[in-house]
Amino acid sequence: MSERSENLDFEIRDWRIRNPLVTPHRHEFFQIHVNVNGGSKHGIRNVESTYPDNSIIFILPYRVHYSIPAENPDYHIINFNRSFLGPNLTANLFETEELIALEHPEIIPFLYQGAINFNFSDEQFSYILKLVQQMHQINSMRNMGWRERIRGCLLDLIGYAMESYSTEITRLLNTQTNQSSQTESFKRVIQFIDKNMSSNLTLESVAHSTFLSPNYISQLLKQKTGLAFVGWLTMKRMEKAQELLLMTDNRISDIANEVGFADEGYFTRRFKQKFNFSPSEFRAQRRH
Q1: Cα 140 off chain centre by
Q2: SS3 of 42, please?
Q3: Helix, strand or coil for residue 48?
Q4: Model's pTM, two decimal places?
Q5: Closest CA to 65 of 105, 117, 26, 8
Q6: Closest CA to 270 of 218, 234, 245
């Protein structure tokens, strides 16, 4: 939070304090946008939406998003780290989102932002703004007990949003929304690997480029394929190498580079280990 907040545990501010980031970004902390005036655009889950008056946006840690403010902005930003709501909200929770809703219902709005648009009536939003103003006041003083008081306001705000959208949340909890989200993530990972096979891919580089955590990708691949990341990547590279050997007349060294092996000798050893034939032997045998 140090790049975007004065305090590392909790911060609340209005639109006048800091300019928004209009390019896609992500951060390690929870964020809540409380939109008094509508018209601001926000991109999240690869969808850009214009949010009306009296709306809230819940942003889960590491979820890529961006914000383009309205001409006459009026909003509040709440940032808090992963331990602020409780000591059990640790980093590993964000690697398997499907389980979080059951164990930590207080972050359900963050999980379902995008699937649900949290918009409120004037009467409902009046209650929300009272909580926001109370948090501003408590945070400005930070007297003894301030964390507990703000935590109470914050949980009240989150709980009120859940109560207001209980029907929609229940429906999502009882459907395959999470499974669909998981499938989308898996598709994004394998498509990125397929398109960038010639690069020096690592679990960390794939995670960075697909906006997922390394541990989440590892668990996803293991669940979907039964293979760890390195095993999956090697298998895909070998499959691509087979295709190129059969469908092109490219040199072995060029094929090795195209599937991500800088060293032709190492590529040949791995290929033979996998198929019991060297690349040249494989090509000659299959073409007869």
Answers
A1: 31
A2: strand
A3: strand
A4: 0.62
A5: 26
A6: 234
